[in-house]
Amino acid sequence: MKLTSRARFSTVCLHAGQEPDPTTGAIITPIYQTSTYVQEALGRHKGYEYARTQNPTRMALEGNLAAIEGGKAAFAFASGMAAIGAIATLLQSGDHVVVSDNTYGGTFRLFDKVLQRYQLSFSYVDTSRLDEVERAFTSATKMLFVETPTNPVMRLTDLGAAADLAHRHGVRLVVDNTFASPALQRPIEFGADIVTHSTTKYLNGHSDSVGGVVVAVRDDDIEWLKFVQNAEGAILSPFDSWLVLRGTKTLPLRMLQHSANGLALAQFLCGHAKVKHVYYPGLPSHPQHELAKRQMRGFGGMLAFDLGSLEAARRVLNGVKLHALAESLGGVETLISHPATMTHASVPADRRQEIGITDGLVRISAGIEDIEDLKEDLAQALDAV
Ligand SMILES: Cc1ncc(COP(=O)(O)O)c(C=O)c1O
Fold it and tell me: Would residue 52 show up in a list of annotated catalytic residues for this protein?
């Protein structure tokens, strides 16, 4: 099952990192549920000593994800936050990081409440405005941490320009690619040094696993991340690795349907009298639609819309039947949520207002159901507003 260097994206998703099991020929990489490996003699073994350090299921997934993102190596962690925590260990006390201002609330919490205690400092900037990013750089800046599109107001950062700017200042560009997935956007092609994901979302895609990954290209980063993954030990379990490996086989197909449903729902909401504003990069009215067309291969399943008040949002969130009211995103089933009180509750209220997360904002992660069923469900919930 050797992949040629010409292998196209969906072929890479299906096969990269995986060989038929050497013992039985099983086409699917087994779940190696073991904590240790028997050695043939003192100092002689098959390359596996202890399962925190090496596990064949996890290593198959890591090979798969490195290839899918176009990186050199990948490291799988117990959650998306554990992956971001591992990236932060590339920093040293006194270092400064510039971060997208409406980054995921949990990322903000990690930076603001935990990492600041270790003499790291963070500036939150609208990274869609690279002049502001450049102004925020100091001589201590070592990392530019970008989410694009952002959660939940779908603001984009120009990845190529951000990479050029970061590298001119000797700064690493780290991209959290969870929202787009590599099927729609591959930041390393634009010059990113590190890509991270909550694999909990589109990469696994079936709402049945929590995990994270870091994909790197620089040899010094790879060496350190491999060391830290083992030293801190926040590894992805064999079963979760197997689930994500199964998920990536259908990633290109799922993303086509997520994107088609995302666009159709955005268009439906745009034309609805009760909706004040729709945030979706696939709409020509999105201020960065042209950039989205340039750096994304589809606009994804994430959208948000503003109903103008908490009461209106509550009626819709409580009125939907098929849309599941839940945190998270990127699964095959459609989820609906209220960022101000759910995903972004840990962001202070004044900062939420600044970045457009109003009390009337509702976020949808469009699944792969029949679009007519989704539209009907939203329409009946909007009738109650
Ligand atoms: C963009 C983004 N990054 C990182 C995370 C953290 O991932 P996890 O929940 O797997 O720790 C999330 C979770 O929602 C997310 O949306």
Answer: yes
Which atom of ligand 1 is least distant from the CA of 178? 1
Indicate whether residue 214 lines ligand 1 (CB < 6 A). Answer: no
Task: Identify which of 200, 213, 244, 365 to mutate to test ligand 1's pocket (most ligand atoms within 8 A of the CB).
Answer: 200
Bridge partners, residue 123, by sequence: 98
Q: Is the bond into 182 cis (omega within 30 degrees of 0)? A: no
- DSSP annotation of 44 reads B
CA distance 265 to 368: 12
Which is the closest atom of ligand 1 to the Cα of 212?
A: 10
Selection from 224, 215, 217, 212 nearest residue 191 by Cα? 217
| Spatial distance between the Cα atoms of 138 and 274, rounded to a whole number of angstroms | 45
Asked if residue 110 lies in contact with residue 77, where contact means CB atoms within 8 angstroms, the answer is no
Ligand 1 neighbourhood includes 176 CB (under 6 angstroms) = yes
User: Whole-prediction pTM value?
Assistant: 0.97
Q: Please pick, among 21, 37, 52, 375, the residue that the annotation labels catalytic.
A: 52
Q: 303 forms bridges with which residues in the sheet?
A: 364
pLDDT (tens digit per residue) in 36-92: 999 999 999 999 999 999 999 999 999 999 999 999 999 999 999 999 999 999 999
Give me the amino acid identity at 256: L
Q: List beta partners, residue 173.
A: 144
The catalytic position among 104, 124, 279, 280 is 104
Judge whether 185 and 177 are in contact, CB under 8 Å: yes
